[in-house]
Amino acid sequence: MTPTPPLFLLLLGLIGAQATTAVDLRTAAAMAAGLCKTRPTDIVFIIDSSRSVRPSEFEQVKVFLAKVIEGLDVGPNATRVGVVNYASRVKNEVSLKTHKTKAGLIKAVTKIEPLSTGTMTGLSIQFALNVAFSEAEGARVKSPDISKVAIIVTDGRPQDNVKDVAQRARDAGIEIFAIGVGRVDMSTLKQMASEPLDDHVDYVESYSVIEKLTKKFQEAFCVSDLCATGDHDCEQVCISSPGSYKCACKDGFTLMDDGRSCSACSNSATDVVFLIDGSKSVRPENFELVKKWINQIIDKLDVSDSKAHVGLVQYSSSVRQEFPLGRYNNKKDLKDAVKKMAYMERGTMTGQALRHLIDNSFSAGQGARPGVTKVGIVFTDGRSQDYIGDAAKKAKEHGFKMYAVGVGNAVEDELKEIASEPTGEHYFYTADFKTMTQIAKKLQINICQEEDPCECDSLVKFQKKVEDALQALTKKYILDFR
């Protein structure tokens, strides 16, 4: 086997160092710009206040804790912090459930007093495992989305065993950082800490310089807001999540299969739900015209398993789902299901129907697909008997493209309130049910026009002529130059 050239190894080392530096710089920049959040974490500080820790040194430990906490995103749904104080005995100074604000937490830390006896580090870890990280004390249920972290600060050799209890804590999913000060026993730190030890074991010469570790721990829990830092490739909208992001599109655009680019066409994937007024004012003969109108629009959609899905909801004094999104993936079955819809009669609770659309029709449990355009088409023939404002606003805030269609006694102000912007393209009104077919022709759910193959052929021919002309000019230039 040919030995690896030393220069090649050197280059690999340089590349690795540059990549690490780039990550560190991005994290530092994110922190400096205030674009850093901490992932949801339950953190418990375990601090040694034995006789060997002088009162002034213990104050420096508390300053270190306060500075680390200052860089955390503290809150019930973000990072929760607890503090365990130990010497020969263990005291739970701050529970994970106690303080929901950063200010309250830091104030509680400043009031902690040293215990000033022995050094039972193993006992403190056991206490943290059994009590501090328990649900009764505010720890959250074990989940891949919630980290459990213990940060141990000690300056001496423990008077009990730490190896076995630290292993049990790590096996329970607790990540352990061990900080040693002064004459600490380094082998004990390594027995307690999680792997890799280089990342989880720290040493400082004295408590006077423990603050220099503040930045390390702030960065350890920092998750950059990749959308805010611009570290993403979304074409239109970036939605942040801890340490990651997902792309979305503006109203009227569809997220493409690559997960980042957007198309103004909805012939790729669209979830369409019809919300149909079946109140008694519609009348049976007109309700049949409404069903024909629905099927006219379905005819214009590219219905398939991977393209347009259609759901149907009818409402009057109550709301009834006729069929959910995705149940029928071809036009024939869809149109047959629409024809079978039975007329409800009774009242006109449009607000209730809109709430059903938001909470149920466009939910994953009812067949809605993540990352595709959601289109709601509301039909009504009269004034709503309940308030529609909040639900209409919420539907648009959720990013749903809302069309409002009114006939007869429908209130145009209500239609405009339901419709997406620009309202001129999203609300329609006609006085007579018999002219609804004209609305079906005008209502376009951003259907893309297919390319004209003749135009494509012409373009290819034109391109060929240009290439031939360029080649002729090139030959002429070369001959003239000679």
UniProtKB/TrEMBL annotation:
Signal sequence coordinates: 1-22
Function: A major component of the extracellular matrix of non-articular cartilage. Binds to type 2 collagens and forms long concatenated protein networks as part of the extracellular matrix. Required for the network-like organization and bundling of collagen fibrils surrounding chondrocytes in the zones of maturation and hypertrophy. Required for mechanotransduction and adaption to mechanical loading in cartilage chondrocytes, resulting in an increase in expression of the extracellular matrix components ACAN and COL2A1. Acts as a moderator of angiogenesis in response to injury.
Organism whose genome encodes this protein: Sparus aurata
Compartments where located: Secreted
Listed CDD domains: vWA_Matrilin
PANTHER family attached to this UniProt entry: CARTILAGE MATRIX PROTEIN, COLLAGEN ALPHA
Top-level taxon of the source organism: Eukaryota
Residue ranges of domain VWFA in the record: 42-217, 271-443
Name the UniProt record assigns to this protein: Matrilin-1
SUPFAM superfamilies xref list: Chicken cartilage matrix protein, vWA-like
GO molecular function terms noted in the UniProt entry: calcium ion binding
InterPro entries xrefs: ECM_Assembly_Org (IPR050525), EGF (IPR000742), EGF-like_Ca-bd_dom (IPR001881), Matrilin_CC_sf (IPR036337), Matrilin_CC_trimer (IPR019466), VWF_A (IPR002035), vWFA_dom_sf (IPR036465)
Entry keyword set: Disulfide bond, EGF-like domain, Glycoprotein, Repeat, Secreted, Signal
GO cellular component terms, semicolon-separated: extracellular matrix; extracellular region
